[in-house]
Amino acid sequence: MDKRLLLALALSALVIITFTYLFPPPPPRPHVPGAADSAHVAAVPGAPATSLIPTAPAAPARALAGAAPAAAAAASTSGTPTGTPTGTPSGTPSGMPSTPVDTIDLRTPLAVYRMSNLGAAPVGVTILDYKNARPGASPANPYVDLGLPAVPMLRYRIIAPHDTLDLESTVFQLARSSAPGGNPVLTYSATVRGAQVTIAYTFHQDGYLATVRGEIHGLEGGYLLADLPDGFVSHEADTLDDQRNFAYVVKATRSDPQGTAFSKLDPGETKTEPGPISWAAIKSKYFVVGLLAAGADTAHAFAEVDLLGGPRTGTSKTATTAAATAVQPLRDGAFAFDLYAGPQEWKRLHALGRDFENVNPYGGFFHVLTQPLATLVVRTMIWMRAHLNISYGWVIIIFGVTVRLLLWPLNQRAMRSNIKMQVLQPELQAVQAKYKNDQAKLQEAMMKVYRDHGMSPFSPVAGCLPMLIPMPILLTVFFVLRNTIEFRGVPFLWLHDISLSDPLYLLPLVMGLSAYLVSWIGMRNTPPNPQTKMMSYMFPVMMTVMLFRVSAGLNLYYAVQNLATLPQQWLLSRERAKNPLPSTPRVQGRGVSSA
Q1: In CATH, which of 3.40.1180.10, 2.60.120.200, 2.60.120.10, 2.70.98.90 is domain 31-83+103-361?
Q2: Which tens digit of pLDDT belongs to each residue from 555-591?
Q3: Domain segments of the chain: what residues?
Q4: Buried b (16+ CB within 10 A) or exposed e, 532-570
């Protein structure tokens, strides 16, 4: 079988396997009753030998969103904490002044935070710069909201050597103030089991960040357990695709961020990420809620993060809920972290430091290769958008043409090497036929053929290597154009959103036709080869089918790449026409010439 056919089949199989791995259909998983409430106990690194910390929330203190008891949901909507008399904080002796449960809205230029004194935690964050794109969205809720109905975004517990303070069911008193820079500050305080607990939020006006500082007086040692959100309400046009991106991401101080998709956690399955940990986050396709250890040092690093798989919901059995708990040791009775709740805008996440811009790890098992390239591609496109003052649609076109021009010399070398091999092939076949029974003479004759043409046996491999260099770039752009929020909602020509599929399916067809045109021109003035001709039809059709419903921006980039390749293919085709292949094989030297 022709080597080029084998190479083409191998590359096609690689593309199919990679696409199937990256976008698998959601497998049906059995629902395990009560799995969401399961718990186990493990020691936290650095904890006293007698101190055991629950690494997954124990029922009934934590119930996954969508599986909360009706009483808890009713209490949340009515303003009465479950099991606590109205207006009486948990742990407050009777007869003391009561504090009513209240939720307030704190507005910044970019977001609206809904804060509750029940648990002293945010219950939702509305992102004012991003519209709700979900089909059938209510006009009353036009913006993206990161909260879940009737479920607080954060839940706190304090684990002490001899006591546990459940702050989720505690009603705090609120005091308002301002930081020296004018940023609003909300300070919550309460007495819980004789310990004075204070939690202060400072909201930054220029972003989506809040600094969280807490103090517990009257308690020796202990740990803060902060429960992250259990999931999101999807606000995307493709809800299922958004839900497939639901994941927890954990960044240890000495390693790269590690993501765990909800679908990778079986119902009731527990997983512990050991510390020290710089940050832990929950993300959807475009948005993220993260807890970042305060400061650049490890003084307030998280000791561990514990994950718990949630139940599968809906007919597709998609994993839409899970649970995660970040554990932070108390330092002199205090804890501290930064809360980011907002979009995955690269510049904002990068400004926070701690590698938080990599909260969306690209590429699966290609992560080590694609993540640095993804950062470079994103930064380049953002720079082009800012300095050229053009739409991201034109940025994609200019970027695609620029990449093709930069790779032109490498492709030229690879294609010319292929032409030389085509000239060489008849002579090599004649030598192989002549000396098939004498390996020594065969090797000697083949080396002479290579020398006569200024090549070596390694020339075919060296010639193919430049053609492999664009592959990581194509793969990286595939992830960037599908998962970068800067492209969300961007219109271009007839497209109302380049992050969604082309409603008219014009770009996938242009991409497929241009891919075929590249193959057709590339085969001109070459020896007839039925296998190569067959692949020239199969590959464009295969690519069209795979990319038919992916983002229009991705199809636009691939189509531009194909069209920018045509001039190079045409020039090389003319070069082959000027140097036609010999019609008969010829063996020189010790070989026999055949005419």
Answers
A1: 2.70.98.90
A2: 999 899 889 888 877 877 777 666 655 544 444 444 4
A3: 3-18+384-407+469-578, 31-83+103-361
A4: beebbeebbebbbeebbebbbbbbbbbbbbbbbbeebbe
